[in-house]
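Example record

One chain of 294 residues, shown exactly as stored in the release files.
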Amino acid sequence: MSSVKHDAEYYGYGLALGGGDTSLLALTNAYRAFANGGVWSAAHLQIERSAGDGGGPVRVLSAEASFIVSDMLSDSAARASTFGLASPLSTRSWAAVKTGTSKGMRDNWAIGYTERYTVGVWVGNFSGAPMWDVSGVTGAAPIWREIIDHLHADQPSRAPRVPAGVVQREVVFAPAVEPSRKEWFVVGTESSTKITTVSMPTAEAAPRVLSPADGTVIAPDPDIPATRQSMLVRAEAPQATRVCLKLGARSLASCGVREAMVKLPAPGRHQIRLETTEGALLAQATVEVRGVPR
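Predicted structure tokens for this chain:
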């Protein structure tokens, strides 16, 4: 993208999350590469253009990687726990889409594509002033969906063809924290499809809070409703020790339970405590929850 004019050190890790300035046209055209199976070409505002003006097709990622990304961005079931099945991202026919909200609630985006069209929507103030209570999924996404449904009112969009270099395999979780499901893999990367999500403590394990790690800073996602944002609390202790998980003085689960998914606490600093049934402190971790800019 021509708008990214500095090296990686200038932007830091935030570049992977969209920390580099770009225009709506450049960002939408980048998503068009996914729609074209990993092939990028320059965007033009007119069909006829003079010879030699550049912008010829360039493969920027493999057809296999592009297909898997499109499969993830079009998976309504995967995002149902966050946005629900009847969300502004749900179109009448196949579409892949991603929303985003910039720091300070100054911009929100919805960029997505179908079999025939790539559409980008930006919502914000031209002055750069922050917005109130508007995120990508509530501001830009409804507009994006209306445009997509209008464009495909007479001809539904179809999912992309499966390239030869990918294979579908069943993924099994151990323990079964989620139902097994089928996922796509680039051929050669599907050797193990059993995912172990919890490590069992040993008899000699010292009591400790495994999650969240001490000093964790949690920044709530403004695109996700607050009621759907949670925090995993998990502890380790000798199996013979009956422990209790607490957030400050409040119990998070019945004593003996060492893992709990709890509602994200209010903004501020909090103590995750691991105690005995008599109330003696065994371990603790500090976590900070940031407020959502308003």
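Notes: The chain has five helices and 16 strands.
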